[in-house]
Amino acid sequence: MERQSYYITTPIYYVNDMPHIGHAYTSVACDAIARFKKMQKDKYGEVFFLTGTDEHGNKVDRSAQKKGVDTQSFVDNLVPHFKKLHSDLSCDYDYFIRTTDGAHKAYVQDIWRRLNDAGAIYLGKYEGWYSVRDECFYQEGELIDGLAPTGSAVEWVEEESYFFKLSKFQDKLLDFYNKNPDFIKPEGRRKEVLSFVKGGLLDLSISRTSFSWGIPVPIRSEGANDEHVIYVWLDALFNYMSALDAAQKSELWPADVHVVGKDILIFHAVYWPAFLMALDLPLPRCIFAHGWWTNDGQKISKSLGNVIDPIALSEKYGSEYLRYFMLREVPFGKDGNYSDAALMSRINGDLVNNIGNLLRRALVLIESKHDSRIPIIGTLEQNDEELLEDIILAKNNFVDRMSNFEIHLAIEEIIKLGAKANVYINHKAPWKDEDKSGTTLNILTYALKAIGIMLQPFVPISAGKILDAIGIEERGIVDIDERVIPGGKIYVPEIIFNRITE
Ligand code: MSP
User: Fewer CB within a 10 Å sphere, N or C end of the chain?
Assistant: First the structure.
């Protein structure tokens, strides 16, 4: 079978402030998915993981002004913090795009020309509400008590603007959603988008004249103001293609999945495909919308002063624990709540008590009773057979869950296997029964191999240590089918999962 490529993206992050937990979450989730795809080495040849920063627009510009800094220096100072977030959290992206990159600007200007040539753009005047925080236009009827549906403040805008003929794409979009039921995930979100589009689409304002921090509109219509800059969302969405161009990977388009937060689903599931349709370009295969984190039950916001700093959290607990907690605690797609207590109980329960204990118990016995070599397997009893079957079952379920973006359930498969292996070791008591201990410890090493391999997308460093300790070099999903080789050297590593106390 010919191997496919896989292209996954995070949204590009606004650099109006330091990174927060939402940025960490989207990037960690994408990193885990990308690592999983890389582990399916029989299926995927190239896996490409893109992230970056969204640097234009009113919001970023105003934040710079508030600090009294020129906007370019402002964004230049923030970008390293976003890169550090990724390296601190082991988010191993293949390319980092900045929308202030010269190549991106030229790309977007070219897109503008092509949209114009396709007859999709006209000059008009925008009169309506705009939220700078959301970088979004709202209709009067969408406002709730004078605020955007997101709770953000809106301001009245009247200015000359170019428009994209979004209204023309309503039927084409609905037809596309119907023919591609997997385009928007999870299912509940798909329904939201359908009802939004069925509600009617107005043409979209795609340029601004009241500020200049953006990519200049490259062509000028008769009688137009020449100060137009391109609407930040049109600029930002095309990062998914301009980045491939810059990385000389254009053949990877269309993207396999754009992972986004639920707040920016409409931009990705409505505007983005409409822009692409206008240009006759292939559409991404899937938009996956994840939920939002709250802090001890409260919405996270700067004004409430409860913003969660992921870099500080990762310094406190370690990046591996933060990654694990975010991915395991909340069903991917649903909202979740952050609390120190929840993180502590997850980590101590799953990683310390379950996996960490299992590893130590098995390896200490192999070290002391079998000269640190994986023993040979003898006659199998029923519970040996059962654990062997459980390993393969866990692997199959794990692959299904991950392929369906059910990250939390995929992790649960690993933890269930760990729990079964713990019951097995208690039952077999290999410290007592010298004769049978070889078989038991061989099978346990095999369970640890499977666990180590499957843990890689979530806790890549710790999983690597587990696999190093039991001498496993081939670390792909298919390698789980191979049992461990008797005689192989193991060692008892330093404690990999330290208990969180406090
Ligand atoms: N710049 C746009 C995206 C353009 S993509 C072409 C943007 N940036 S953002 O920095 O505001 O948000 C980036 C991501 O963080 C979004 O997916 C958003 O949903 C996510 N989160 C922001 N706050 C969040 C939480 N409290 N919880 C989880 N994710 C949240 O939007």
Answer: N
Confidence of residue 436 (pLDDT cuts 50, 70, 90): confident
Q: How many CB atoms lie within 10 A of CB 283?
A: 19
Asked whether the beta carbons of 413 and 398 are under 8 A apart, the reply is yes
For the stretch 74-97, pLDDT in tens is 999 999 999 999 999 999 999 999
Q: How far apart are CA 285 and CA 300, in angstroms?
A: 31
Q: Measured in angstroms, how far is the CA atom of residue 90 from the centroid of ligand 1?
A: 19
CB 365 within 8 A of CB 437: yes
Quick one: tokens of 318?
A: 């370690």
Mutate to test the pocket of ligand 1, among 58, 292, 322 (most ligand atoms within 8 A of CB): 292
Q: Is the CB of 12 under 6 A from ligand 1?
A: yes
| Burial status of residue 33 (CB atoms within 10 A of its CB: 0-12, 13-18, 19 or more) | buried
Q: Residue type at 315?
A: E
Is the dihedral angle over the CA atoms 349, 353, 358, 360 positive or is it negative? positive
* pLDDT value at 58 more than 90: yes
Q: Indicate the SS3 state at residue 409.
A: helix
β-strands 207-208, 229-230: how paired?
A: antiparallel
Q: Which helix (H) or strand (E) holds 484?
A: none
Q: What is the pLDDT of residues 268-322, one digit of tens each?
A: 999 999 999 999 999 999 999 999 998 888 888 777 788 889 999 999 999 999 9
How far, in Å, from the CA of 376 to the mean position of ligand 1? 52
Q: What is the DSSP letter of 136?
A: E
128, β-bridge pairs:
157
Alpha helices in 255-381 (DSSP H): 265-266, 272-278, 310-317, 319-329, 340-346, 357-369
Residue 12 CA from chain centroid, whole number: 11
Which of the listed residues 54, 111, 338 should we mutate to test ligand 1's pocket, taking the one with most ligand atoms within 8 A of CB?
Answer: 54
Nearest in space to 112 (alpha carbons), one of 27, 265, 28, 215: 215
Q: How many CA atoms lie within 13 A of 186 on its CB side?
A: 13
**Separation of CA 162 and ligand 1 centre (Å):** 26
The answer to whether residues 265 and 236 touch, using CB atoms and an 8 Å cutoff, is no
- C-alpha–C-alpha distance, residues 324 and 346, integer Å: 9
Atom of ligand 1 nearest to the CA of 261: 19
pLDDT at 225: 77
Mean pLDDT of 479-488: 97
